[in-house]
Amino acid sequence: MSGRRNDGVLLELDGVSAGYEGRAIVSNVSLRLRHGVFAGLLGANGSGKTTLLKTIAGILPPVTGRVSFCKSHAHPPLLGYVPQREAFDPIFLFSAREVVAMGRQRRSSRGESARVVENCLQRCGAADFAGRRFSELSGGQKQRVLIARALAAEPDVLLLDEPTAGIDAAASEGIGHLLRELHGQGMTILMVNHELDVVRRLADEVIWLRRGEILHGPAAELLTTERAAELLELRLG
Amino acid sequence: MELLREILDPEFLFRNAVDTSVLVGLAAPVVGAFLVLRRMIFLGVALPQISSTGIALALSLHVWYGHYDGGHGAEERVLAFIGSIGFALVAVCVLAFLDRHRRGSPEGRIGTAYVVSIAISILLLAKCPQAERGWLDLFKGQIFAIKTSDLVATAVTMLLVVGALLAFRNPLLLVSFDRDLALVLKRNVLFWDVLLYLLVGLAISVAVISVGPLMTFGFMLVPPLIAHLFAANMRQFILIASAIGGVIALAGFCVAYKYDLPGGPTDVALLGALYALVFTGKKMATMTRRWRMAKDAAETADATAVKGPL
Q1: Whether B36 contacts B279, CB under 8 Å
Q2: What pTM value is reported for the model?
Q3: Residue ranges of A 6-25 with Cβ closer than 8 A to chain B
């Protein structure tokens, strides 16, 4: 995945309104994300961050507007999607390895797929517990498995929904380190996150859903102390 | 042992009933495993009931149009099959459509379909006592009179359904486990949902004709619940559920034959007893393990206290 970093636009949102059953939760978002960028998607509770991420991932159709990927490529880029980890029913008896294998989407031989899965488990530090049942893993371990699953798709862009929410500080630091590493290898990342510190530490750019307007710019510029305080107030409010 | 040898003899009078029971016992838990995983157990109760309403309607129409011959003729079986499969598939398609469009709560929809189908069955059969006899035989799971044609139809259908479920288990499990990922991976979620519903509907409608709604639901639900208590992975879950179903179907037939009991209720009662036994055994094993761990920890703490800090 190295060497992919360039100034070209990878993702473009043109007047996108995102929501459910035709009702928009977030309206009229227009922005562009470049290849190789690490962007944090911030906003108060209920501002529509997850809904917008799901719309970008193709899980929800846009209510209005258009999401388009990478006009320079002949085929649309592959997406790696990391959902919130509470979304999984423990009734399923999948091992961590089986969960990672679900992410494979390129057609390849069984041996090649197994090799990619093992490689992703290694990269994400999940190889040690790959044989354990997914539902029995800790929050941080589950998150590593879900990131490994997204990487198993050999994606061009990684979309993450609250990857550090509800896990302890050490695990959160580990996830942050892993994401920095992936970004260093040229991966484009868009991450929804509540935690300002995490976004400030990791992201180059911030997309801020703020009281009906969209702020998009460099993290250092947007996350000034006053704005951070405002965001915190909104979140707590 | 003598009883088992007699029952497994190829010349045994009720050989078709044995084969059909074991076949449903092996196949229904595989279908049920997918329903349990999707937490759609109630659909497993409702669909056999809806199927049997289809049978009630078919049998009643047969009588009302003056074709009743006083027995369980081939014509009646074909009509019952059409009624069963027709109602099950229509119900499955309607429920899948409503589920996709998120109209109302799923439990509410399935519950309403269940209770309305019972009411329709009773109303139909109240006006048609001749059809009631055949329908009650089916409902009670009187499987001893199964014909070779029914056995073949059941075998072919179950092979087809189980074969498809196992062959397509990866996409079917993916859309059940993580619908969002399936959409991100550009899988056709609607197609796999509809395929699963159709396979479930087909299996249930044929099983209801062969062994009745009680046995069909019992074998779809209880073996997967027992298997889930000690399976380590999804493959084991499906295989153990199927094995439990097959063994209990055979054991149930032996008991029913020996004590002259209806086959379906005997099987389901045995399944219930096994579930209670396994569940209690597992709980007791867990409690014993915890008690031993607590005892070991207490002994270690005592030993440390006696020795004092290093």
Answers
A1: no
A2: 0.82
A3: 21
